[in-house]
Amino acid sequence: MSAHIKRIDVCHIKGAENKLDELISWLSISKNTAKKFLAKKDLLEKIQEKEELVLPLNLINMGKINPEYHGEEVKVLFEDVS
Question: Could you say which residues of the chain have pLDDT below 50?
Fold first, then answer.
């Protein structure tokens, strides 16, 4: 992975041996989305109990709101201050 890509470390604590693609599925990430960030051979790799995995943060956050906005200033329509 490139040095400029933000990453997150995760640890698989389930006792059984699984493949990385099963963990990705458990995280509600589609295989097609995972393929954009990870090589097919990585997805088929077995992961052991308590093994630390390094995954791209953009993969984990895919489809979620990104708190870091880079664009034009947003006009506030209403703000509840109570």
Answer: 1-2
